[in-house]
Amino acid sequence: MKRTLITLMAAAAILTGTAAFAQMKKPDKPYIVLVHGAFADATSWDGVAKILRKDGYHVIAAANPLRSVKGDGQYIGSLVEALKDPVVLVGHSYGGSVITEAANGHANVKALVYVAAFSPETGESAVELSGKFPGSTLGPTLSPPVPLADGGKDLYILQDKFPAQFAADVPVAQASLMAVAQRPVTEAALNEKSGQAGWKQIPSWHIYGSADKNIPPAAMAFMAKRAQARDTKVVSGASHVVMVSHPVEVAKMIEEAASAP
């Protein structure tokens, strides 16, 4: 009953936000829906959203539940469906798995943008992809899992390890606050196999940092090539939160995707 109430409240929040957009002038550009990943929150898109809004885009930085690939994908998919007009889905990290799932069955998704993100094939998990190539140092920085009432486990990055692991090119004071505000992901979500790969039908763009310690850059290069990305950009020296440290480059790629035919 409690879970049903939470689901209804979440749906109401989506509809309320959508109604607010509906009262605005119909956009002549696609909606940009930004989906954060594990150990982050929607504010990680602030720098990118500021640029996109200045350039005339309607932007929604969605609250990713971080509970399961399928469930999170359905949640974001509900928002996409409610918007009706063309949408560019942008995912960071685990959020890439979510937008891959969310795009399916929604003809108004015109592009997928992967920002230091997973773009899984059907049947692949985030854990599998991050371990496909050497380079990830995430495991040793995680705190002991937090047991959940449903039998699952929540994962966090240890706060003192967070700046170097997650946001090495962000000022330490800012990265330390990000560590405090990080949102946990379930262990099950990172191990869950992905459904149908949306990037097989929808064009994709990929951007990531060369110094990413969460997802090996080699893994992201592999995924971008496999998806036959329209464009791929590697930001030299950028950490896993490339959208925080290099919002201009990330916003530029999103706008490239939004304006593509």
Automatic annotation (TrEMBL):
<protein>
    <submittedName>
        <fullName>Alpha/beta hydrolase</fullName>
    </submittedName>
</protein>
<keyword id="KW-0732">Signal</keyword>
<feature type="domain" description="AB hydrolase-1">
    <location>
        <begin position="32"/>
        <end position="252"/>
    </location>
</feature>
<dbReference type="InterPro" id="IPR000073">
    <property type="entry name" value="AB_hydrolase_1"/>
</dbReference>
<dbReference type="InterPro" id="IPR052897">
    <property type="entry name" value="Sec-Metab_Biosynth_Hydrolase"/>
</dbReference>
<feature type="signal peptide">
    <location>
        <begin position="1"/>
        <end position="22"/>
    </location>
</feature>
<keyword id="KW-0378">Hydrolase</keyword>
<dbReference type="Pfam" id="PF12697">
    <property type="entry name" value="Abhydrolase_6"/>
</dbReference>
<dbReference type="GO" id="GO:0016787">
    <property type="term" value="F:hydrolase activity"/>
</dbReference>
<dbReference type="InterPro" id="IPR029058">
    <property type="entry name" value="AB_hydrolase_fold"/>
</dbReference>
